[in-house]
Amino acid sequence: MDPTALLLSLRLAGWTTMLLLPLGLPMAWWLARSRWRWKFLLEALVSLPLVLPPTVLGFYLLRAMGPRGPLGPAFEALSGHPLPFSFEGLLLASVLSSLPFSVQPFTAALAGVDPRLIEASWCLGVSRARTFFRVVLPLAATGILSGMVLTFAHALGEFGVVLMVGGNLPGHTRTASIAIYDAVQALDYDAAGRMSLVLLVVSFVVLALTQGLRRGREATWTRRS
């Protein structure tokens, strides 16, 4: 088993989840409340990674990050190293490929909040920002937590986009999924099995904890009601 690859995958999944929480919530709030007639175009754009082959998304990202792309030269001028085949490139690719796994659950959770509660808060003189943090977020917390778990799990096992953008550099861009692929290619099924078992256990523990938190929160709301 390759512990470095596993730690890199956990790091990548953690950063992806933390970034998509502040990035995805405003987008989800707008999608949940907006009445713009062309809103479906943004919804389709957010959902595109669900149906787009990962290699296609990775190819376009690789072109955008390259020396002739819109992102590559600016990043290299600031950081001193190219964006492709780096952890920063992996992170950008992971955020974009995991976008629907956070935004869609966030949108469903925020849309499920009773608008009468929001309007009542406004009528009491509470600002829109404070209403969002004091009323909307607590009521939508279960769905938001589910979106974060889905994002983490997806980023943890991402393969196609990661391979296209990051390649296979041990200690830098070689994630657990790529390590499993390499082990299978080398006919080292024992190593592939150990790494797969670790990812299976991590995924199960994360989902189990989420389900436990969700049931506990639902029980708390039931008692309060």
Architecture blueprint of SSEs:
Blueprint: H1 3-33, H2 39-51, H3 54-65, H4 72-79, H5 87-97, H6 99-111, H7 115-123, H8 128-139, H9 141-157, H10 160-166, H11 176-185, H12 189-224
Helix pairs in contact: 1-5, 1-6, 1-9, 1-11, 2-6, 3-10, 5-10, 6-9, 7-8, 9-12, 11-12
Walk me through this protein's architecture.
The chain has 225 residues and is mainly alpha-helical. Helices cover 80% and strands 0% of the residues. It contains 12 helices and no strands. The protein has helices at residues 3-33, 39-51, 54-65, 72-79, 87-97, 99-111, 115-123, 128-139, 141-157, 160-166, 176-185, 189-224. Helix 5 packs antiparallel against helix 10. The protein is globular, with a radius of gyration of 20 Å. The model has no long low-confidence stretch (mean pLDDT 87).
Uncertain stretches? none
Provide the succession of SSEs.
HHHHHHHHHHHH
Shape field: globular
Q: What value does the average pLDDT take?
A: 87
| Count of distinct strands | 0
Notable characteristics:
mainly alpha, 225 residues, 0% strand
Outline of the structure:
This protein is mainly alpha-helical and 225 residues long. The protein is 80% helix and 0% strand.
